[in-house]
Specification:
Blueprint (H helix, E strand, L loop, with lengths): L21 H5 L15 E7 L5 E7 L1 H5 L3 E6 L29 E2 L5 E7 L2 H8 L3 E6 L16 E7 L2 H6 L3 E9 L11 E7 L2 E6 L4 H12 L6 E4 L15 H13 L3 E4 L15 E9 L5 E12 L13 H4 L4 E10 L13 H19 L3 H7 L4 E2 L4 E2 L5 H12 L11 E3 L2 E13 L5 E7 L5 E4 L9 H13 L6 E4 L16 H26 L13 E4 L2 E4 L17 H4 L1 E2 H7 L5 E7 L14 E13 L4 E12 L6 H20 L30 E6 L23 H13 L10 H4 L8
Parallel strand pairs: 1-12, 10-11, 14-15, 21-22, 28-29
Antiparallel strand pairs: 1-5, 2-4, 2-6, 3-5, 7-15, 8-13, 9-10, 9-12, 13-14, 16-17, 18-19, 19-27, 20-21, 20-26, 23-24, 24-25, 27-28
Helix pairs in contact: 8-9, 8-16, 11-12, 15-16
The protein binds dioxothiomolybdenum(VI) ion.
């Protein structure tokens, strides 16, 4: 979009605005974490365990230490002053609770056992391969069946009514188990850290989704005061949840840099991405549904296992949406955590909701088939009017309308229910639907806005833009409130020394930053107008400040305000009529700038917001084409209809749902991290063997936002968008696969050997 066609101040909120940081990325001037270089910088390379469980008997580093350029081989025994963080504390903790090199035990394949630091990367790599470990080897437990030998505790997280009694007496019952595999986050930018010490201060350039909590965590890990730690992540090549907390490479880079008193760079390579920096854990979920013959749900049981590492208690909360998506009097959700010899799991896009709704929505489809009912009819019949889990009204829920709009778009009316009954262009066609939901909140945020003497507006907040459009959002607010064009607005993010901003997680940044940014810019403008009215020599001197306003970046009398904003004012025109650029006001008042800070009051402290259940909703409609003669399946259409409150940037918003739908296709058809059962190595840990959905795998994707403002969440009515887009894709696809082929896939991803069971043999 050319700049001159950009929407103006009056309608920029809600418009499709291109990213203001786009040119930095497309011209290669954006610097990501490991792009940073410093004089005297040295390179580190990690040595990984080649066993999945056991103990290091001896670690022979003598050859490596003699190699050219080698400065340090960091390992158990010589790493200094690294500490544990308190697990799962509110303001952040390490993603892996055990600090690297704490002992000689091996808990998973790929665990770092040493780090070689050398003058060049090549020297570090060469020396790393010369480090030799001798192990006491034990067989790792990477079994994919999570229920075998389970002797842990099963916890009940939600319960209402008597689900067991209701299931026992239900006329129609579904009882099925669904599994989702380990999926690896594959952001384009891999993890990596550049650590620079200056006396007692350390700066870490890292790829982080939350520089503020990163600072807290690293201050505890390194044992240095918080004010001595600075984290910088100005650009992040996506995170998908994998970058919410610091990983061991940050600790190792910082420790090595401190011990050598030189800047250290440590990158995680693509293969290490599969073992050392988190994954979505495997889940195994038993769903039991009870219903009346006419399709009213009487019972829901959702009992699941969730895999985690040996030392970390990570839970994939699969049952989070189960209590409130459907109306049902009897319900229970239980969780069982299962330890395996794998690296620590981490949140991955739509954690909990994505695997959880795969299971629940698949079971709903199976129930509809058993009842000989249209799957949408079953959903309408059981739609929840209020959150029956929390017993609260929803702030805003339009899920039924998502279904209606999607049904219209995909042509659901033409859908015939029998398996393999729909044909088009020599292919069998199947259609399926899946619901999505994700929680909303208004989390704390601080932002400052400065009117600068050069006529530019500067916005500052420590929150980071992980590729979602956060830079642009701040600029939209500043533009909407001042009329200063976007190319004269500078937004500074991703630096823990800026005013505290939220972690980019849980799809909550947009709703968090809007109130803070608005309050800051409004206050800066109020100060400007007061100064314009008070400063001798100002054309507005003596005017009541509330008779003034700002338009197009100029102070102007309200009654002179041009009706059509954005129309250029002719030169030499009367100043009071045409206004005075704000930088001229600063000059007259001898001010170097006017700044103000705004804060977002969190919804969890807001009595009004606490009276509601805050959630976004949506639905994906998927269509597949099946060619039985050649066993070829393709996702042919996806329509995504979302109720995420008011959309602030239609372009960035749609991007989020599109990207998430692509990840949903990957989850449905391709993605699974496989661990070798003898050594626990992720054997497909590379882009050749771990398949992600590419453009060639995808149909045209179609995103619709209902755009109902949710004014409980903030004054703009915006909720979050990111995570929700991945929920509901997989059940929509597997239900479409069932409709086309008659094969119900309950263990993702869909494999060709599953489809070969199809009885639909020809078109
Ligand atoms: Mo999201 S998985 O909280 O980045």
């Amino acid at each position: 979009m050319a700049t001159d066609t950009l929407p103006h101040a009056a309608n920029i909120i809600g418009a499709a605005v291109p990213r203001i940081d786009g040119p930095f990325k497309t011209t290669g001037t954006a610097r990501y974490a490991v792009d940073h270089d410093f004089p005297n910088l040295v390179h580190a390379f990690a040595v990984q365990s080649t066993i999945g469980k056991g103990r290091i008997r001896t670690l022979d580093v003598s050859a490596a230490e003699q190699m050219p350029g080698v400065l340090l081989v960091l390992r158990h025994g010589n790493i200094q002053n690294v500490f544990r963080t308190f697990p799962r504390q509110q303001d952040g903790s390490m993603a892996e609770s055990r600090p690297p090199f704490e002992d000689e035990n091996i808990y998973y394949w790929g665990q770092y056992i040493a780090v070689v630091v050398a003058e060049t990367l090549e020297q570090a790599k060469a020396a790393a391969s010369a480090v030799h470990a001798d192990y006491e080897v034990e067989p790792p437990d990477v079994r994919t069946d999570l229920s075998v030998d389970f002797d842990g505790k099963r916890e009940s997280s939600w319960k209402r009514g008597d689900p067991d009694q209701a299931l026992a007496s239900a006329p129609v019952v579904i009882d099925q188990t669904y599994s989702t595999p380990v999926e690896t986050h594959n952001p384009m930018e891999m993890h990596g850290t550049v650590a620079v010490w200056d006396a007692d201060n350390v700066t870490l350039y890292d790829s982080s989704q939350g520089v503020v909590s990163f600072r807290t965590v690293m201050s505890e890990v390194l044992g240095v005061p918080r004010e001595n730690v600075r984290i910088i992540s100005r650009f992040v090549g996506s995170g998908f949840g994998g970058k919410l907390s610091p990983w061991p490479q940050a600790t190792l880079a910082a420790a090595a840099a401190r011990q050598l008193n030189r800047p250290v760079k440590l990158s995680v390579d693509r293969r290490m991405m599969f073992s050392n920096v988190g994954h979505r854990p495997r889940t195994q979920q038993r769903i039991r549904l009870g219903a009346t013959p006419d399709g009213k749900l009487t019972a829901i049981r959702h009992d699941f296992y969730t895999e985690t590492s040996q030392l970390d208690d990570f839970v994939e909360h699969c049952g989070e949406q189960t209590p409130f998506i459907y109306s049902c009097p009897n319900l229970e959700v239980t969780t069982a955590m299962v330890h395996r010899n794998v690296g620590a799991p981490a949140p991955m896009r739509g954690p909990g909701a994505v695997p959880g709704l795969f299971a629940l929505e698949s079971a709903i489809d199976e129930l509809a088939i058993k009842l000989k009912m249209d799957p949408l009819e079953l959903r309408y019949k059981n739609d929840a009017e209020r959150d029956e889990g929390k017993n609260l009204p929803f702030s805003s829920r339009h899920l039924k309308e998502c279904y209606q709009v999607g049904a219209e778009k995909i042509g659901w009316k033409q859908r015939t229910p029998e398996v393999g009954s729909m044909r088009r262009n020599g292919k069998v066609v199947g259609m399926g639907v899946g619901a999505a939901s994700w929680s909303a909140a208004r989390i704390p945020c601080t932002a400052s806005v400065e009117l600068c003497p050069d006529g530019r507006v500067c916005v500052r907040c420590a929150t980071q833009d992980i590729g979602t459009g956060t830079y642009t959002l701040f600029a939209q607010v500043a533009h909407a409130k001042t009329g200063v064009p976007l190319d004269r607005i500078d937004v500074f993010l991703g630096d823990s020394s800026l005013p505290d901003g939220p972690t980019s997680g849980g799809s909550m940044v947009t709703s968090a930053i809007l109130p803070a940014a608005t309050a800051a810019v409004n206050q800066a403008v109020t100060r400007l107008l007061n100064i314009a009215a008070q400063t001798p020599g100002s054309p507005f001197h003596g005017a009541p400040p509330d008779s003034l306003t700002i338009a197009d970046g100029r102070v102007i009398a309200k009654d002179q305000q041009p009706q059509v904003v954005g129309v250029a004012l002719h030169a030499g025109a009367d100043l009071t009529a045409n206004g005075l650029p704000f930088e001229e006001v600063l000059k007259l008042a001898n001010l170097s700038g006017i700044s103000a800070t705004g804060r977002t009051f969190p919804s969890f402290e807001d009595p009004k917001a606490q009276k509601y259940s805050l959630h976004s909703f949506g639905a994906h409609f998927a269509e597949v084409e099946w060619e039985p003669e050649i066993a070829h399946l393709r996702v042919s259409r996806i329509f995504s209809i979302f109720d995420c409150g008011r959309i602030i940037n239609k372009k960035a918003g749609a991007n989020q749902i599109l990207g998430a739908a692509v990840m949903g296709v990957g989850m449905s058809l391709f993605e699974e991290t496989h661990y070798d059962k003898h050594f626990g190595q992720p054997i497909n840990g590379n882009f050749a063997d771990y398949l992600v959905a590419t453009c060639a795998d995808l149909p045209d994707l179609d995103v619709t936002f209902l755009d109902y403002p949710d004014l409980i969440v903030n004054e703009y009515g915006a909720r979050g968008i990111g995570e929700i887009g991945m929920a509901g894709v997989a059940p929509a696809i597997t239900s479409a696969v069932y409709h086309a082929t008659g094969v119900r896939v309950r263990e993702l991803p869909v494999r060709i050997e599953d489809l070969l069971q199809s009885k639909v043999l020809e078109v």
